[in-house]
């Protein structure tokens, strides 16, 4: 029996070596610019940096390497003779930190951007050259082929982006405010009735909004079957490995490897969980089609698109948008919106628990604006700026996707005297940007006041740009997510206290701060007490739903 694993390993090893030889032979990097590549740690001659970059949390290593392997700088002293001649004396050399790093992963060029400036200069200002994605073979196997997040540059990407952006602009999402207010009140009332189940209730809130917007679904309980769709799809996506970084992504032919050779690999994970992505796209869509036929469908994005599709079909016109496109677009709104909102709620509650001064200041501001005889609504938002600061600080303090989904350069480019090859996989290191000490004072501290304008006595530090991406790949649902978060957080602050949990002896249980790994990150479970601030607050909520 021991011979079989050895034989399997030998076969896999030979396949890898053969594929790698072909890859190196025909796809070796060519640099005719005469410029150096960005700096980076030493590479192995055969594997490049494949064994250097850690699989878990590489964003921290990128920050460290940016400081260690910077650009060489000449230290010189300029003097002038009595005759006015300019004399430059070289005193030595030093190394300055680099915000751009280069890696060779099995022959593939990889560039990491560690600063907002580098990301803006390349991904925003040169967006046409960096709007592409690398091919995500593993996610194709999983079933994410028609999702905006992973689509390659081209007409299909442009179509999906326009479709989603049109429905989620800052002005377009105003029509969803009544839904957000109602769902926030339902959620907080649910927490009052069942405080130990607060994390499941906040997950329901997050999913309820995007499911209603995308598919017209009403989530009326914490055990609704569609919540399991969200959980399964999120688990499938975040536990298969980082995008474009698994062996299948480097060698697409490996996606045909049978399961007996792919034991406990990302490929096996993708195959085992493919059903979750299929269910996410098919089940809500099939139910919506059924409701449309029965005349009971609620207004939603998918219904509008289906009506437009049917009208064009009836007229015999060409449909640029297929049924699969509609499923993919609405599925993207579902999974991205639900997970982002829920994760950030956890981050907000965790930090309000650990920073009681922030909690008290926020509650005082809400009390002053809203009073005690009504619940907050979106008309209060302009006067409750501090709550928006808390949301933005949560985005910065724990960026949900520390490395984001990578871009791909279409053509050769140069930046700061460095060569960036065509076909490079480009990572924007949101973690590095959000903790940049040249921008944020004491970045590890959760401090919403850092955003207060200077003329009001604050530091006027900028909102973090990294968490929602850059350029033509920026997340189109960022305004919707921020609005949903503001609404539920304001409702919680107005009606509830966030207190440390206690054990059976009445001693406080300190919260454990741990963030999950993978494509997206969220706090692991922590203990907390959520208690009504008053009997009046309980009655207000109960009477509002």
From TrEMBL:
It comes from the Eukaryota. The keyword Cytoplasm does not apply. The keyword Plastid does not apply. InterPro entries: Cyt_P450, Cyt_P450_CS, Cyt_P450_E_grp-I, Cyt_P450_sf, Cytochrome_P450_fung. Its cofactor is heme. One of its GO terms (molecular function) is iron ion binding. Keywords: Heme, Iron, Membrane, Metal-binding, Monooxygenase, Oxidoreductase, Transmembrane, Transmembrane helix. The chain crosses the membrane at residues 6-23, 74-93. Pfam families: p450. Heme binds at residue 475. Gene3D superfamilies: Cytochrome P450. Belongs to the cytochrome P450 family. This is Related to cytochrome p450. It comes from Phialocephala subalpina.
């Amino acid at each position: 029996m021991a011979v079989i694993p050895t034989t399997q390993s030998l076969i896999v090893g030979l396949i890898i070596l053969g594929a790698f030889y072909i890859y190196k032979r025909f796809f070796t990097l060519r640099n005719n610019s005469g410029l150096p590549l960005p700096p980076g740690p030493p590479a192995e001659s055969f594997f490049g940096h494949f064994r250097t970059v850690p699989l878990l949390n590489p964003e921290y290593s990128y920050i460290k390497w940016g400081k260690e392997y910077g650009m060489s700088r000449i230290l010189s002293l300029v003097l002038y003779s009595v005759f006015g001649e300019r004399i430059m004396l070289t005193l030595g050399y030093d190394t300055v930190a680099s915000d751009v790093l280069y890696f060779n992963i099995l022959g593939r060029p990889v560039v990491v951007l560690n600063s907002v400036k580098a990301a803006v200069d390349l991904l925003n200002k040169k967006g046409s050259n960096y709007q592409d994605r690398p091919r995500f073979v593993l996610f194709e196997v999983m079933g994410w082929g028609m999702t905006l997040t992973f689509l390659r540059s081209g007409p299909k990407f442009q179509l999906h982006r326009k479709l989603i952006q049109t429905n989620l602009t800052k002005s377009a999402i105003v029509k969803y405010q009544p839904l957000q207010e109602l769902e926030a009140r339902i959620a907080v009332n649910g927490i009052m009735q069942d405080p130990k189940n607060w994390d499941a209730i906040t997950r329901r809130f997050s999913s309820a909004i995007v499911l209603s917007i995308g598919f017209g679904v009403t989530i009326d309980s914490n055990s609704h079957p569609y919540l399991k769709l969200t959980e399964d799809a999120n688990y499938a996506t975040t536990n298969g490995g980082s995008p474009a970084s698994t062996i299948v992504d480097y060698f697409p032919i490996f996606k045909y490897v049978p399961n007996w050779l792919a034991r406990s690999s990302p490929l096996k994970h993708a195959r085992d969980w493919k059903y979750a992505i299929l269910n996410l796209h098919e089940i809500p869509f099939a139910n919506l089609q059924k409701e449309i036929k029965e005349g009971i469908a609620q207004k939603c994005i998918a219904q509008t698109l289906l009506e437009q599709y049917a009208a064009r079909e009836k007229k015999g016109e060409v449909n640029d948008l297929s049924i699969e496109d509609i499923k993919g677009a609405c599925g993207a709104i579902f999974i991205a919106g639900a997970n982002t909102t829920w994760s950030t709620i956890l981050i907000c509650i965790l930090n309000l628990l650990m920073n009681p001064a922030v909690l008290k200041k926020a509650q005082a501001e809400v009390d002053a604006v809203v009073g005690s005889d009504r619940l907050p609504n979106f008309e209060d938002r302009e006067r409750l700026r501090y709550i928006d600061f808390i949301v933005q600080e949560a985005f910065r303090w724990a960026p949900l996707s520390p490395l984001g989904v990578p871009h791909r350069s279409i053509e050769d480019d140069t930046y700061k005297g460095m060569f960036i090859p065509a076909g490079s996989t480009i990572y924007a290191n949101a973690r590095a940007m959000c903790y940049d000490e040249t921008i944020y004072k004491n970045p590890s501290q959760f401090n919403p006041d850092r955003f207060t304008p200077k003329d009001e006595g604050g530091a006027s530090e900028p909102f973090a740009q990294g968490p929602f991406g850059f350029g033509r790949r920026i997340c189109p649902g960022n305004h919707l997510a921020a609005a949903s978060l503001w609404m539920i957080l304001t409702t919680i602050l107005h009606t509830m206290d966030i207190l440390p949990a206690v054990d059976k002896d009445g001693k406080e249980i300190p919260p454990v701060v741990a963030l999950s790994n993978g494509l997206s990150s969220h706090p692991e479970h922590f203990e907390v007490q959520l208690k009504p601030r008053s009997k009046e607050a309980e009655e207000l909520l109960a009477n509002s739903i």
